[in-house]
Structure formats: structure tokens, C-alpha cells
Amino acid sequence: MRNLPVPGMDALALFDKITGEKRGEVSARLGRLRRRISSAYASYQANTDALQTIASAGIKGVREKALLHAYNSPTATMRSIRDNLIYPNIEDFDECPYCGINDPKTLDHYLPKETYPEFAVHPLNLIPICHICNSHYKRSQFLDGGARLFMHSYFDTFPAFDFIQLQVIVNREVILSFTNSSDPANPDFSILFGRHFRKLGLNERFVQKSAAEISRKRPALRRFYRNGGAAEVAQVLQQEANDFRVTLSGNHWKVALYSSLAGSQDFCDGGFLRTVKIR
User: What DSSP designation does 167 have?
Assistant: First the structure.
């Protein structure tokens, strides 16, 4: 889970280019909408810290269809926007910023295009995330009782705090339970992170990924255990956690996994040989 750089694109200029690339009535309808789109884009930019306050422009009928057509039937400019967002010039960008698990190969309309068609092609509203987060979890959700359900990867900046926590219990199986914690210095962000964590089903998804991670790591842990016992296993796991913290940030499931496994005496003292309970 991570933040992404804010796209440095001239959104209104891109809207004008898309309008020019369309034909017939679609182009004409987009052109007649320009003033309302300009106002909507300005509102988005002015309220990046309070996106839940943005009201829909109320664009319906054939004009709404024209805006959705601009995204769903992409012109060269829309394809370029998509490529620049999904393939940014970021060396380590290969995981969904919403979950930190899968490839980010789809675009999420943070403000759903079904309700806010005015932002259908607005780069600030398009976040590259994975298909699982986009199609199975978030879909067209945005608010619940006026409160946002998901973090915006461009604008909801992570504070220096580890929000992902993991409990490790070793019995006949290794039981993992991921939870979200609260930062007393950032209560509003903590609440938003908690909603994001629960709505995306991250505990279950993190457990499944962790089971595979431990399975692949088990042969190496056996060697470390033979050489130096539980202490060496803990040292190796903690070093992995430290390295991931540098490369992935503190709010990644791998950091929580490795640091918590390193802190579990039962896991390090042979518990790693037991299977992880997935369900």
C-alpha cells in the first residue's frame, strides 16, 4: 500500500483534445459541456482534501453518455492518459497501491463515473489499481453515510506510522490475523484506513499471500534453524522486514508479516514448519 505521485497533466487541455478527436454529436456534446467540465475540474482540484464534499454536476442523458463514451471508447489521447497512469516512470511500480498485492493494470474512477460522469477522463480521478480491487471490491462505491470508504492514492498521504498489524499464533497450524491500528496523531486518516482495509477484504487476502510467502521461505528457514536455531531465524526474518520497510514502506503486508514472524518465538523455534491456516 502506497502513495503515488500526483499526475502532472493539464486535464482540461486533454479534455479538449479528446473532444476534437471525437466525431459528430459526441464531439458536439462534449464541446457544449466544456464550461461545466472546467468548473468541475476546478472543484476537484480545490477539494482534494475533502472529496466527499464534491456534489455531482448532475449531467444526464445524451451528455452523460458522451462523457462515458469518451472513456469507454478511447481516442488516442485517452489511450495515452491510460498508458501514462498505468505505466508511470516509477521503477518499483508493480503492485496495486490499494492492496500491495496484484498488478495495477486497471483504472479506478475514485469518484465513480456512474455518479460523476464529469470526471470520467480526469487524470486526478483515475488511479491505477488491480482488477481484484477494482472489480471485486471497490466497484462503484465511494461514500457511506457521507464518509469516504477508500483512500485516494494521490492525496491521502500516509503519515509515518505502521497501520498494518499482525498477530501470529502457533498451534497445530500457524494462525495469522491482520488488523488495522490507529495513529493517535492522525485519527481521521486512521478511520479512513480502517474502512479501506475492511472494504477491500485485506485481512483474508494478506493471509493468503502470507501463506504462500512462508511456504516458499520454509526451505531457507530450515537451513537457518539448523545453523543457529531460533535466534538466527528471527534475525533473518527481521532483516527481511527492515529491507522491505526501506523498499516498500512501513505499510505493506510483507513488512508486517516478516517483523511479526521475527517477534514470534514459537514461529522461529520450529513453528515455521507448520502449515498456515488460510480459512
Answer: E
